[in-house]
Amino acid sequence: SLSLSLSASTMAMGLPLFASIFLMLHLSFAVSSDQCLIPAKVSKFPCPSAVSAGACGYGPMAPGFNGGNVAGGSSALFRDGVGCGACFNLKCKDKKLCNTVGTNVVVTDLTKSNRTDFLLSDQAFTALARAGKASELNKHPILDVVYRRVPCEYNKNLSVMVEKGSIKPSNLVIKFLYQGGQTDILVVDVNQVGSSDYRFMSRKFGAVWETSNAPAGPIQFRLFVIGGYDRLMVYSVRPLPADWKVGAVYDLGVQITAVAKDGCSQTAGDAKAEAMK
């Protein structure tokens, strides 16, 4: 069964052809990795400054996400930027050194290492340890873990930051912040409030989207989102004002809380093999 909850007006409907193609590409990963515990290896970012240089484009905001518990994910997790902002629970398999709760991380970067599936911030790595075992745990360059995707929870709404490269009236570059639930944003459209003329945005990289054809007036966002097994269309409640400014963050007045609830019918090894296809 699937439990879906949105804190503002949304509607489930069939996607246009281009969105359906995205859906087919990403559905198998969402199903397999969200529900199953998957074996993986983790290490730490080489230095704290690397957290702010992530491929998702969050920049200096990244170390502040989730209390600093952030991670770089493998290409199978990063998914050409679709996985940016996704949350995962990681549990270390060394019972002598690691606690049983694990830690939740937000994906903010891509790791190209073929030795690990996640690169963790210092805080996230240390959070795996049992009380009094952090020093000993940090002596291990690589840890064996199991992970699963979990809902992202924020005490704020989905927001956008207007990025450099945005030039009025029509060039608009934004990145999404604080994306909740177990969801992937696949398609983004914009229109002037009150108009039915929706204009397509393209993913520039990571969590960053752009268009050279933005409307001039207050802008509403329409997001095609996959949450679990369902497709959702989510509208921003608060528009991006006509006098938007580069570097400013704008609250969209809506949060996505879609969560898939289903049993895990695959073994962890089968799930990982499926996710890596």
Automatic annotation (TrEMBL):
<dbReference type="InterPro" id="IPR036749">
    <property type="entry name" value="Expansin_CBD_sf"/>
</dbReference>
<comment type="similarity">
    <text>Belongs to the expansin family.</text>
</comment>
<dbReference type="GO" id="GO:0005576">
    <property type="term" value="C:extracellular region"/>
</dbReference>
<feature type="signal peptide">
    <location>
        <begin position="1"/>
        <end position="30"/>
    </location>
</feature>
<dbReference type="InterPro" id="IPR036908">
    <property type="entry name" value="RlpA-like_sf"/>
</dbReference>
<feature type="domain" description="Expansin-like CBD">
    <location>
        <begin position="170"/>
        <end position="252"/>
    </location>
</feature>
<dbReference type="Pfam" id="PF01357">
    <property type="entry name" value="Expansin_C"/>
</dbReference>
<dbReference type="InterPro" id="IPR009009">
    <property type="entry name" value="RlpA-like_DPBB"/>
</dbReference>
<dbReference type="InterPro" id="IPR007117">
    <property type="entry name" value="Expansin_CBD"/>
</dbReference>
<dbReference type="InterPro" id="IPR007112">
    <property type="entry name" value="Expansin/allergen_DPBB_dom"/>
</dbReference>
<protein>
    <submittedName>
        <fullName>Expansin</fullName>
    </submittedName>
</protein>
<keyword id="KW-0732">Signal</keyword>
<dbReference type="InterPro" id="IPR007118">
    <property type="entry name" value="Expan_Lol_pI"/>
</dbReference>
<feature type="domain" description="Expansin-like EG45">
    <location>
        <begin position="53"/>
        <end position="157"/>
    </location>
</feature>
<keyword id="KW-0964">Secreted</keyword>
<dbReference type="Pfam" id="PF03330">
    <property type="entry name" value="DPBB_1"/>
</dbReference>
